[in-house]
Amino acid sequence: MDPQSAAARHVAVIAGHLNCPSPSAAAPLALAACLRYDPPELSENPPAFDLAALRRILDGHDLEARDWLFRLMEESPLFCPRRRGDRTFVAPDYNQTKEQQRAVTMRRIEYLLRRGVFEGWVTGSGPEAELRKLAFFECIAIYDHSLSIKLGVTYFLWGGAIRFFGTKRHHDKWLKATEDYQVKGCFAMTELGHGSNVRGIETIAIYDTNTGEFVINTPCESAQKYWIGGAANHATHTIIFSQLLINGTNQGIHAFVAQIRDADGNVCPNVRIADCGHKIGLNGVDNGRIWFDNLRVPRENLLNSVADVLPDGQYVSSIKDKDKRFAAFMAPLTFGRVNIAATAVYISKVALAITVRYALTRRAFSISANGPEECRKACGGQGLKTENRIGILNGEYDVQSTFEGDNNVLMQQVSKALLAEYLAAEKMKSPFNGLGLEHMNDPCPIIPANLTSCTIRSIKFQLDLLCLRERDLLGRYAGEVSQYQAQGESKQKAVLLSHQLADELARAFTERTILQTFADDEMTQSAGPLKELLGLLRSMYALICVEEDASFLRYGYLSLESAAAVRKEVMKLCGDLRPHALSVAFHVLPTPIWIVYLSSLSWLRHHARGTPLLRRTTAASHEQLAGAVVPDGREEVATHVRKRRASGRTVISNCGAFNEAAAAIKDQ
Q: Of 38, 144, 8, 34, which is closest to residue 593 (Cα–Cα)?
């Protein structure tokens, strides 16, 4: 056999294992170094900036109201409070069944209702009432997304539709009852066969002039209302979106109020409801399916702010164009979509806080943390455990990216709005004045060929680069749509064919807008540690945007050398931000929400027992995590020591803290 062959090398390895001499029985076992997994507060430096000032920037308004709501949560067993020293933390119990989660979500709503949390959520007016509502909604969403979605369906979707689609007769009848949660409304738009394509929904409403009623039907299985939040168990009323047929003419999508359950919770006649079942997230929300079988609703239940049907069946509307009428119906839904985007941010906040804390304690192998999925990877195996919330948050984040319009559809809408603004400015030969496109009135930015670290981190360079990308993509998008139209395609088809540029443009617009907002807030700060920190965070955001988008190289906004320089600067920023990691991650979430010190603690508890190496105990670590001063796990050390001594085994460890505690324990 050739001694250099692969087979010969494998045989040699096996022979080495077989011929390996046995270790001497008398040879002592070497003790491994004691692993210590302390809460990061014990080793990290204190914040170098004013935490209260950072919170004022991040939360922006109603700080005292937010704290009041968090105290309400801390005081009730419904929110699963965990007391650690002099502090209280709250978090949902995700080990409950679907039915239990739904029941406790309702009890939490009733608890908050009795304490006046929802006052003004539907009947209030003015910016102060709106901001207070949004502040409360953020607090609730950070605690549990099932709770926030359940409330959002009733107060924002149902309640918002009554406010914006309805008129005085609807406001007087439904708004106060909704705010007091006497009426539990849901929002029946999505169908099994029609999600983002609202124009194509198949539910039909026909006006009966003899009775002055609309007769609503589900004509086929694909027309069943699907994923309707609140429908499966609790909703008493719904808003039905359907095609309106008047004398055989389809007048398009309209909205109707209908009762689907009576006061005792029984499903109303001519309505069928089924449960959508268990989901990957939001199991505290009772999503359901609804069918209508000749359901009759009064003429007055048509939400008629845009169009109406007179008693004799005559259809009237101040908006004659059907497309514009449809757009008017859809416009109020924008508020709900903004809430969904905001909720996705809250999810990311919690996931990031958990992941950064864990990363400061035990290194895993993920190299990025972009969204809850990357946070899960960064937590290794601990990211899979329900108690640690990462998996739950990841599933709920996916939901936020899907309902009320898939993200791809929303990106198309953003690009279409930008295109309309661009074409209008071109046609009128007027400056841009809207959607933040005013930067296109300025000369085209010039990006330096040789980038230094100072240049790369400057606000001017970052904004110039993102503005350059946006203005170029907008011009390319308009040109491509125009080219398709010149080839005979309709405008709608031309827009669809240009979807790749549309997606790139929407991303460019979104990221430039976020960076501009960040920079504006940063510039209002006086010089000092907080402003320096904001500069680091702003640079990290801007450069990650550049690094992750191929369009900067695809269209030549950056050279290969400049792109490489940006990539190196990202790594330098990671080092510069590292000392602030705990302060930023934990204090973007200055709440009593339980940030589980991931179950490495459970892992440590398991491996500590029955071995001579006792790592930091779980109980003590949790206490120190919460900031309380407690004995250093002595009770658990004592239990371990006594068990070993009782069995005649040696108590030994190379952990100084363990040996110190063990020496102080007398035999009993």
A: 144
